[in-house]
Amino acid sequence: MPFSLTHLVLHRFGSRLYYGWVVVAVVLLANLVAFSINVTFGLYITPLEAEFGWSRGAISFGYALGPILGAVVAPLWGTLLDRIGVRPMMVLAGLLGATCLILMGRIQALWQLYVVYSVLFSVLYTGVAQLMGSVSVTRWFIRRRGRALGIIMMGASGGGFLFVPLQNLLINALGWRNAYTIYGLLCLLLIVLPTLLFMSNRPEDAGQQDNVELSPLPQTGRMTSGATHDNWTLREAMRTRVFWSLLAGIMLATICVAGYFTHVVPHLEHLGFSRTAASSAWSFFFFVSMFSKFAWGFISERLAVRWCLMICMVGECIGLLLLMHPTSHTQLVLYAVINGLGHGPFLQLIALVWGNYFGRGHIGSILGTVQPAIVLAGASGPLVGGLLFDQFGDYRVFLWLLVAAAAGAGLLFFLSPPPQRSLSAAHGAASTVPAEPAA
User: Fold this and answer.
1) Which residue in 123, 67, 121 sits closest to 90, CA to CA?
2) What CATH number is given for 6-202+226-422 in this structure?
3) Could you give the CA distance from residue 218 to residue 252 in angstroms, rounded to a whole number?
4) How far is residue 240's CA from residue 431's CA, in Å, rounded to a whole number?
5) Mean pLDDT score, 99-104
6) Which residues, other chains included, contact 344 with Cβ-Cβ below 8 Å and sequence gap of 6+?
7) Residue 123: CB partners within 8 Å, gap ≥ 6?
8) Nearest residue to 283 via CA among 39, 26, 12
């Protein structure tokens, strides 16, 4: 494996180190940048509005085009991840992402925003954040998959916690164009370099396919929190009712999350809070969510993942209600704490549920197939938010729609226990009858 330090690390630490934890560290660093492009987009709305005179609906449409392109390329990402591996694909995505971030600081027309941001979102958020990291960790972990995903998804909240105030500072001090250039350099430092040096595609590549981490729990012979040792093919998974109800729930939840994430800072500015106060509250939300993700990593190994998803949706509803019309900084802190705790596990849970339900053997193809629907759902949220703001002059109607979406997602998760193979599965047929595992 050229240019990789994997074998050197394994030689130095031997059996004392399961290399999957090195992979977790690499993905964690990558997620700091990859997820942050979503939550920092709102910081650039008012500067773009001020410099070019573009409406928020027009700017939000640029954001929506990113998930649309991501939906188109996601199946290709998934197929290439299964065939080529995470390491070369993540390096490629990091290089493309860094180039697009630098180009974002040089746009002069609305169509340029649409083109560059579309490619940026599809390679970093869809490719690295939602597919590559999740696929890699799902392949490396079974027994402690929940906490491993919790750690890498700390990068999602950590990216918001670090990059929201950093980007706000850079925009105020150097201008939004230079802020994007620095963003691109950080992408090279945090994604491309660690991946080149330390990423390994599978346990088999490092000679650790027999590690205890990839075996059932010894006391029960079963996987934690409903995780399966069985590997479903994409075709088998798609034949189950649970596959589709789960996908529908995740789509509704993504509409909610992607929708308000983009408009939180502009919403708070519209309510009269200063840009600094709004971005500080938004950053504090990610600080709380970051530690919540770590705690939920352990909880999700003990509590069935669908129940965790339902709790998460309750947290989203409460957070959105608190966000409706805060009137003081104390209420902003309350929102950040409550919604940070409730929202925290969302990303790791939607990564965890596919691996727990359908195994790790074909996880790249499965995630690549469902991703187009999920990212298209996510694209609709910010666009609807911008259009409704232009129509009504505030975000209140939009936030109520998101509350309804979160409630609907929670109901669908309740109706989506894990699938179970029938006796005919031995001949290649998958059952559509769900069965609830022991938590």
Assistant:
1) 123
2) 1.20.1250.20
3) 37
4) 6
5) 94
6) 157, 288, 289, 290, 291, 292, 293, 295, 296, 312, 315
7) 93, 96, 97, 100
8) 39
Reply yes or no on whether the pLDDT at 222 is more than 70. no
Among candidates 133, 135, 103, which has minimal Cα distance to 118?
Answer: 103
Residue 225 is given by DSSP the state G
**Percent above pLDDT 70 for the chain:** 89
Residue 274's SS3 state is coil
Answer positive or negative: Cα dihedral of 382, 387, 390, 392.
Answer: negative
pLDDT single digits (tens) 314-357: 988 998 898 888 888 888 888 888 888 887 788 778 878 888 88
Alpha-carbon gap, residue 268 to 266, rounded angstroms: 6
> For 77-95, what is each residue's pLDDT tens digit?
877 887 888 889 899 999 9
Task: Locate the domains of the chain by residue range.
Answer: 6-202+226-422
Coil/strand/helix, residue 16: helix
Angle at 97 between CA 269 and CA 65, to 5 degrees: 60
Instruction: Please say whether the beta carbons of 278 and 268 come within 8 A.
Output: yes
Contact status, residue 9 vs residue 19, Cβ threshold 8 Å = yes
Does residue 196 have a pLDDT over 70?
A: yes
Report which secondary-structure segment, H or E, holds 289: helix 275-299
- The CA distance from 235 to 232, in Å, is 8
DSSP code at position 374: H
- Other beta carbons within 10 angstroms of residue 185's beta carbon come to 12
pLDDT at residue 410 in the model:
92
Cβ 384 vs Cβ 398: under 8 Å: yes
As a whole number of angstroms, the distance between CA 103 and CA 211 comes to 44
Measuring CA to CA, how many Å separate 295 from each of 147, 302, 343? Answer: 8, 12, 12
